[in-house]
Amino acid sequence: MSNPVEEFNAYRAKMNDKMMADNNKIVKRIFNLDTNAFAEGALSKQTKEVLGLGNSLVLRCDDCVKYHLEECYKLGMNKAEVVEAMSVSLLIGGTIVIPHLRRAYEYWEALEQNKS
Amino acid sequence: MSNPVEEFNAYRAKMNDKMMADNNKIVKRIFNLDTNAFAEGALSKQTKEVLGLGNSLVLRCDDCVKYHLEECYKLGMNKAEVVEAMSVSLLIGGTIVIPHLRRAYEYWEALEQNKS
Amino acid sequence: MSNPVEEFNAYRAKMNDKMMADNNKIVKRIFNLDTNAFAEGALSKQTKEVLGLGNSLVLRCDDCVKYHLEECYKLGMNKAEVVEAMSVSLLIGGTIVIPHLRRAYEYWEALEQNKS
Amino acid sequence: MSNPVEEFNAYRAKMNDKMMADNNKIVKRIFNLDTNAFAEGALSKQTKEVLGLGNSLVLRCDDCVKYHLEECYKLGMNKAEVVEAMSVSLLIGGTIVIPHLRRAYEYWEALEQNKS
Amino acid sequence: MSNPVEEFNAYRAKMNDKMMADNNKIVKRIFNLDTNAFAEGALSKQTKEVLGLGNSLVLRCDDCVKYHLEECYKLGMNKAEVVEAMSVSLLIGGTIVIPHLRRAYEYWEALEQNKS
Amino acid sequence: MSNPVEEFNAYRAKMNDKMMADNNKIVKRIFNLDTNAFAEGALSKQTKEVLGLGNSLVLRCDDCVKYHLEECYKLGMNKAEVVEAMSVSLLIGGTIVIPHLRRAYEYWEALEQNKS
Fold first, then answer.
1. Which of B80, B81, B91 has its CB closest to that of A33?
2. Which of A58, A107, E45, E112 suits a disulfide with A93, CB 3.0-4.6 Å?
């Protein structure tokens, strides 16, 4: 039986490995920066993940939304917090964001079911 | 002598008044939602303003960036916090964001000078 | 046998219900505004649906395009009218719109086959 | 005294002439298509201009918005119609569109003052 | 067994035929320009395909990326060249481009396997 | 008398200095990567600058377009080459790119006049 969370992460990991194996300096450094950028700093890790989620939502990138939803979930954020953040991004990004919000809700549900 | 903060706010207020005077229901409700969306809720007002700033930066809207920078400033955020948030958005949004980051730095400076 | 029109609408309705059940004020009001925005007003409902279709196409949102195509279809617009509107948006939005235009054509065909 | 409508059109005309003088085939044909695309066809010229205005607004191009506002104005559309179209695009495009809406209001006012 | 390259091209060809059959003048001319734009000229065909690939990547259009990857592949470009071009676009477009880069790597692999 | 090329570069240099002085790690590394990305590699520096120009044009960033136009100019590219590259990006990015193309033409002219 398919598990959307596992599927997403497996594909992501497999392709990231291939990209890293390639040794292109720019690609590797961007990936490295990506890890650094979301570490605790002047702002909390949670604030940064909310920011990453919101930025991904207004830029309408489903995979990026999934990734940050999962990080928010792992940090213990509850659904009300995540939905509130996404509602701000819906307002800023407009109704064009709605289809991505549907898929975000679906993935959040998958995260909750995956855990149980 | 021109003051960029006052100029920005004066133009914004003048045009917002004209839009509100127009009584278009959709426009008025969107403006009303805009106020609600950034109120304290499941997330703090500050987290939401950081989110608003980041969303505006990756969508590359200078006026929106200015508005949220000013809100962050009024909430007492320091430059390190604001720059860290913007650095995450620079990474997500790419180097295409750099010219907007320049103008954001310039406006933050104007906010600091305006106060003193 | 799968029916793309029914599938699209079933998923859309299911997820919209979940979002509405959530009682986030911003999300609910945006959905409510969405209904109001496309009602007959200073402009005809058809003009507004053409506008919704075009905006969705240049913003390259396949699900939004499908939704407005279906509304245009229900309002009795013919293919020549819909294609002409989409051709304007193709020109404004550029060839990057072409893959979305392919899927729009496919969905229009599904709408016509669904009816018969 | 500066006239924003005349200034905009003078710059636009001057630079378009330079681009046409350059004889790049793709550029010339795109410009030519641009004229054709907004001619009366299966849809009325007015519907197409509303579409052009809305597409320009959600893509957040101030100069394109100005151009289509002027075309709508010349076709005799009233402010209520134009504002209603823009309100739909504000909803679809989100609050990130607001600064562009401010400038659109300002230009519409300039169009009205230019005439009198 | 499914072949991603053949599937992509079959769908693309089928839908392009339907669009051409429709005789909308704007759509046909845009398609015609598309062919002309990538012909050898002041710049080499390869430079133009690299440009088409990069533009598609920062605009985040998977189908457009696939199309230009295939053209680059047919022109004999090697993986290092293609990856370097994509790394520049990743930097300009930001980490929001990463999911599209994953799918680009996957398609390049499919192109190599398809040949053998 | 104002010189658009000098003005642009002076502002750019001044603000870049302020950003670098700030010691945010992500910002500094992105700036550093930006320099690396356009160095000679598997692709020529010129091909990469054409790519940078095109990416900036379809993402509609005037300052980025100016920067890459100047780099192309310094590499000795002629106007026909630069215009051809921009015409491909106009086609991919659509007529929404036209106002940015006007400003690109204007800046190219300024580059030529600045030299003489």
1. B91
2. A58
Chain A residues with CB-CB distance to D97 below 8 A: 94
How many Å apart are CA F106 and CA D57, to the nearest integer? Answer: 24
Question: Which chain E residues are within 8 Å of B96, Cβ to Cβ?
Answer: 58, 92-94
Whether B111 and B69 have beta carbons less than 8 Å apart is answered as yes
Asked if pLDDT for residue C1 goes beyond 60, the answer is: no
Q: How far apart are CA A52 and CA A38, in angstroms?
A: 8
Q: Does F105 touch chain D (CB under 8 A)?
A: yes
A114 CB near a chain E CB, below 8 Å?
Answer: no
pLDDT for residue C116: 66
CB contact under 8 A, F16 and B90: no
For A108, list phi and psi in degrees, rounded to 5: -60, -40
Give pLDDT tens digits for B35-64.
999 999 999 999 999 999 999 999 999 999
Q: How far apart, in Å, are the Cα atoms of D3 and each of A111, C95, D8, D9, D70? A: 58, 36, 9, 10, 14
In this prediction, residues B21-33 reach a mean pLDDT of 95
* Superfamily in which the E4-114 domain is placed by CATH: AhpD-like (1.20.1290.10)
pLDDT at residue C94, rounded to an integer:
98
Do B15 and D83 count as a contact with CB atoms less than 8 A apart?
no
pLDDT, tens only, F15-53: 999 999 989 999 999 999 999 999 999 999 999 999 999
Residues 6+ apart with CB under 8 A from B29: C29, C33
ipTM reported for the complex, 2 dp: 0.96
Those residues with Cβ within 8 angstroms of residue C77's Cβ, 6 or more apart along the chain or in another chain = C46, C49, C50
For the record, the structure tokens of A58 come out as 């207004």
> Are F96 and D34 a contacting pair at CB < 8 A?
no
CA dihedral A73, A79, A84, A87 (to 10 degrees): 90
CA–CA separation, E79 and E85 (whole Å): 10
Is residue E98 within 8 angstroms of chain A, CB to CB?
yes
Alpha-carbon distance of B14 to B8, in angstroms, equals 10
CA atoms within 13 A on the CB side of B27: 23
- % residues pLDDT > 70 (chain C): 98
Residue E82's contacts (CB-CB under 8 Å, 6 or more residues apart) are E53, E69, E72, E73, E108
What is the structure's pLDDT at D71? 98
Q: Which of F54, A31, A25 is nearest to E53 (CA)?
A: F54
Q: How many CB atoms lie within 10 A of CB A94?
A: 24
Closest approach of chain F CAs to the CA of A29, in angstroms?
8
- Tell whether the model's pLDDT for residue A11 goes beyond 90: yes
- Please name which of E30, D61, E103, B97 lies closest in space to residue F56, comparing C-alpha atoms: B97
- Which parts of chain B fold into alpha helices (H)? 4-21, 25-37, 45-58, 62-74, 79-93, 98-115
CB-based contacts of F23, cutoff 8 Å, min separation 6: none
Q: Min CA distance, D1 vs chain C (Å)?
A: 34
Nearest to C91 among F58, F92, F95 (CB): F95
